[in-house]
């Protein structure tokens, strides 16, 4: 089964740092074990005759089923197939696993799909992206991205040597490839990934050639260190049902003179070209489409938990609770409607690839940064002090105070044990370290939300809305004209 192959493949000499130690194997480590089990099960869906058509597609001319994030959509059916596979994996993980590699794979698929157009950026681009796309697709590679430069001093740029030395840059060109040094933040799923897609989120100047690149870096590259944050995994599944299997882990990457073979250098040396690749609409639409499909699963999950909590304590009859639960429904519907709009208004790009309408996806990603924190706030308001009316462990239900536990923790419509289980699940969303990380994630995963909203304004065809205003005022002003 490819789930086991995936887990075993991580035993490849990568350098993973956790709690001051360089881990030799992550398989059995409590910080990673539960999540690896989750990914293993998802990978196995591609070997399951009942599921593989839901999550994958048969590669032309081969027996191999690849995940549908590698499917280049030319028709509405193929676009729907991509949606279905994102939807299935994310529902299976309640939207809590955001980087199951289907996002990063979609970027690669998009660049591959637009390769004829993108070869103008570099004569080797087409051949390199084709070879990599086929390799990643046929070997079920797990991918993630790291495109943010380390947060040192955001008021300084590359003219400051302190910054230029720490941001990832090329130190040498060799016959075999580029040697790079510096750091990247944040790579979600880093300990589980095979390859990192590395670039910069920032717009560099033309002179900053050494910092301008798009690279695909194997996780086991010599000199690459994966520095993990504190673990939010918790093996006590009955206390932390989400923490037990969904801590994706985030890491900072240190590149200590890492050789990137030429075939993994997609672009190098030209900041404008790097920006053009990063802004490529085909790749961004396909990848961001995954983001918002996954997001629906998460909103549905939080809404389901809020409904259950409200029912369990008998507060569904109060008007303000109904209003707040109704707001959660509108959140889900807004994102679902934006996905439908993006798909039904999908248009072929220059190569005939059917590309979801990006403006709706951008809107879903931007508004989503506000929805999730609000959903968590609503959940807190619904459950109130009940989140603290829980024992430290379910064991109390089976010990000497068992009878009292059943008496005093009882809910309006559910048994004491079920109510406590439900509130522990809800706490894992709103109060645990994992829950807090998820709120931060939804605020920032798509980049800085402030600049994302601002970019929507900057890129918008404003005259379409402004011209009719002046037209109206012209008609209503004295003498039929407004002096400028
Ligand atoms: C849980 C989590 C997981 C993540 N996973 C990934 C991942 O897998 N891959 C990846 O590439 N990235 C990932 N990220 C990083 C994410 O993309 C960034 O957090 C996001 O782009 C914001 O950048 P920053 O964190 O460097 O914030 P900063 O850019 O440092 O911003 C800090 C504050 O200053 C403000 N600010 C900074 N500069 C400006 C400016 N020029 N103009 C206006 N305001 C400014 C911002 O609005 C913000 O309020 C992850 C982040 C989180 C929190």
**What compounds sit in this structure?**
flavin-adenine dinucleotide
Radius of gyration: 25 Å
State the distance separating the first and last CA atoms: 72 Å
Supply the helix-strand structural class: alpha+beta
Number of helices: 17
Strand order of the largest sheet: 2-1-10-11-7-6
- Mean of residue pLDDT? 96
Low-confidence stretches: none
Instruction: Kindly state the percentage of residues in helix.
Output: 40-55%
Keyword list:
single chain; 484 residues; alpha+beta; 6-stranded mixed beta sheet; 4-stranded mixed beta sheet; binds flavin-adenine dinucleotide
Characterization of this structure:
The protein has 484 residues and is α+β, with helices and mostly antiparallel strands. It contains 17 helices and 14 strands. Helices cover 47% and strands 14% of the residues. A six-stranded mixed beta sheet has the order 2-1-10-11-7-6. The termini are far apart. It binds flavin-adenine dinucleotide. Residues 99, 144-148, 151, 154, 186-188, 201, 250, 437, 440-441, 444-445, 447-448, 450-451 line the site of flavin-adenine dinucleotide (FAD). Flavin-adenine dinucleotide is lined by residues 99, 144-148, 151, 154, 186-188, 201, 250, 437, 440-441, 444-445, 447-448, 450-451.
Short structural description:
With 484 residues, the protein is an alpha+beta fold. The chain has 17 helices and 14 strands.
Sequence-ordered SSE layout with sheet pairings:
Blueprint: H1 2-9, E1 15-18, E2 21-23, H2 33-44, H3 52-55, E3 56-58, E4 65-67, H4 76-92, H5 102-113, H6 115-118, H7 125-138, E5 143-146, H8 161-166, E6 169-173, E7 177-188, E8 195-198, E9 213-218, E10 224-228, E11 250-261, E12 265-268, H9 271-278, H10 281-312, H11 319-344, E13 347-348, E14 354-355, H12 358-383, H13 402-408, H14 416-430, H15 433-444, H16 449-459, H17 463-476
Parallel strand pairs: 1-10, 5-8
Antiparallel strand pairs: 1-2, 3-4, 6-7, 7-11, 8-9, 9-12, 10-11, 13-14
Helix pairs in contact: 1-2, 4-10, 5-7, 5-10, 10-11, 10-12, 10-14, 11-12, 12-14, 12-15, 12-16, 14-15
The structure holds flavin-adenine dinucleotide.
């Amino acid at each position: 089964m490819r789930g086991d192959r995936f887990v075993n493949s991580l035993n490849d000499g990568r350098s993973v740092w956790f709690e001051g130690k360089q881990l030799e194997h992550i398989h059995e480590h409590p910080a990673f074990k539960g999540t690896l089990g989750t990914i293993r099960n998802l990978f196995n869906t591609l070997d399951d005759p009942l599921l593989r058509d839901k999550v994958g597609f048969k590669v032309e001319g081969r027996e191999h089923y690849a995940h549908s994030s590698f499917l280049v959509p030319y028709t509405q059916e193929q676009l729907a197939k991509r949606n279905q596979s994102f939807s299935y994996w994310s529902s299976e993980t309640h939207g809590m696993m955001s980087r199951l590699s289907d996002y990063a794979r979609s970027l690669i698929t998009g660049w591959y799909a637009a390769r004829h157009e993108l070869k103008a950026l570099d004569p080797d681009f087409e051949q390199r992206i084709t070879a990599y796309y086929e390799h990643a697709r046929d070997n079920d590679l797990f991918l993630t991205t790291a495109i943010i430069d380390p947060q040192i001093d955001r008021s300084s740029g590359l003219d400051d040597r302190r910054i230029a030395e720490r941001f990832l840059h090329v130190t040498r060109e060799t016959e075999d490839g580029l040697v790079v040094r510096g750091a990247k933040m944040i790579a979600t799923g880093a300990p589980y990934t095979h390859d990192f897609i590395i670039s910069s989120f920032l717009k560099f100047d033309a002179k900053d050639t050494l910092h301008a690149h798009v690279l695909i870096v194997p996780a086991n590259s010599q000199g690459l260190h994966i520095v993990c944050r504190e673990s939010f995994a918790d093996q006590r599944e009955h206390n932390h049902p989400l923490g037990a299997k969904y801590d994706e882990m985030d890491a900072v990457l240190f590149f200590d003179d890492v050789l990137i073979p030429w075939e993994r250098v997609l672009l190098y040396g030209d900041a404008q070209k790097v920006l053009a690749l990063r802004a490529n609409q085909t790749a961004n639409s396909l990848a961001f489409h995954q983001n918002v499909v996954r997001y629906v699963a998460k909103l549905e999950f939080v809404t389901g938990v809020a409904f259950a909590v409200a029912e369990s304590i008998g507060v569904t009859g109060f008007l303000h609770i109904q209003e707040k639960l109704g707001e959660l429904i509108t959140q889900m519907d807004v994102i679902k409607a934006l996905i439908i709009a993006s798909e039904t208004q999908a248009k072929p790009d220059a190569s005939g690839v059917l590309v979801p309408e990006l403006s709706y996806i951008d809107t879903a990603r931007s508004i989503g940064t506000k929805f999730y924190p609000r959903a968590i706030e609503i959940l807190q308001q619904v459950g109130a002090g009940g989140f603290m009316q829980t024992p430290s462990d379910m064991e109390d239900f089976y010990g000497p105070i068992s009878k009292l536990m059943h008496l005093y923790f009882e809910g309006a419509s559910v048994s004491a044990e079920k109510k406590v289980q439900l509130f522990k699940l809800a706490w894992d969303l709103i109060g645990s370290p994992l829950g807090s990380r998820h709120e931060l994630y939804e605020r920032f995963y798509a980049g800085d939300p402030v600049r994302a909203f601002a970019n929507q304004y900057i890129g918008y065809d404003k005259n379409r809305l402004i011209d009719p205003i002046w037209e109206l005022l012209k008609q209503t002003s004295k003498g039929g004209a407004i002096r400028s």
